[in-house]
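Review this today:
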Amino acid sequence: MNLKNRCLSLLVKSLSFPKIKTSAPSRILAVSTTALGDTLWTMPALESLRKSFPEAYLAILTSHIGLEVVENNPWTDASYLMQKSFNLWHHLRGQFDTIILFHASQRITLPLCATLGAAKIVGTKGMNKGLDHLLTDSVLYSGQHEIDRRLALVEKIGGKAHSKKLSFFFKPEEKKIFTGCWIALHPGAADRYKCWPVEHFATLGNALKKEFPCNILITGNVRERSLMQELAAQIPGSHLADDSLSLRSFAGLLSGVDLLICNDSGPFHLACAVNTPAIGIYSPTHPSRCGPLICPSAITVFKPRTCQPCLGRQCQQPFCLLQIGPNEVLQKALQHLKQKTLY
């Protein structure tokens, strides 16, 4: 055990709290403090928890972006922002008998949960930064899809998997309406090694405009502004989306386009959640684990990784993505648009 984990384990012992025991879960805290896609994958688990334990109090501890994802959902009773704060710890302590750790980026999250007094702390074995011993119950990861991994944790506490479909709950004013055919290209991703070359996106966008009258909308966030501008410069007549939109405004934007083409990234899963047709470009990640699961309007273009071992986030030149050419994605897009009677 490394020094950080030893210190955190000692802290947990010093902050021990009487366990809240119950025969069945009655106050449940779901924990998902990571990024967009990870929180969207948690939505079927939240729905399943609500339907499995309709009388239970169900809250979620999540990230800033997670708060926007779960806003307006019909399943949770409360939402809390994960932060290193005594006030948060003091407020949550003694409130829950069951905690389910779906996914957490911060090392402190599980130790925090272990000091809240829950009789059950459930998580996936081997995915807790060396702190599995703080779980009371664990499920072995078997390489299944991330949605199924989360649902296995629901089943571990006696619940049932009621849904595998992603969801996002709009307020009426949040949806965007476009006139004509609009295709969104999203060239960025949180990780460089998941990014298809911008030149390929440009070739694809120009080919789409040549095939039929359509508007190309280039989307991204503030960190991706230069990438968006680089792509726009290579597609004459394209439109740049506002890169400062909130997540919910961006979701409303996606709900109005006819097709999204993007990398393996949060926007692909967001498109699935808002029922927008989408094409995701995958390599080295595998769609069987992090692609669309129950989403007929979403398809993937996938090629296996070329390097063994894969460098992952250390990779600066993702050669595996060079296996996917613009024409292959174009044909998928045309096929997709024909099915939607847009072509």
Observations:
- The radius of gyration is 21 Å.
- The first strand starts at residue 27 and ends at 32.
- The chain has a mean pLDDT of 92.
- The CA atoms of residues 105 and 235 lie 37 Å apart.
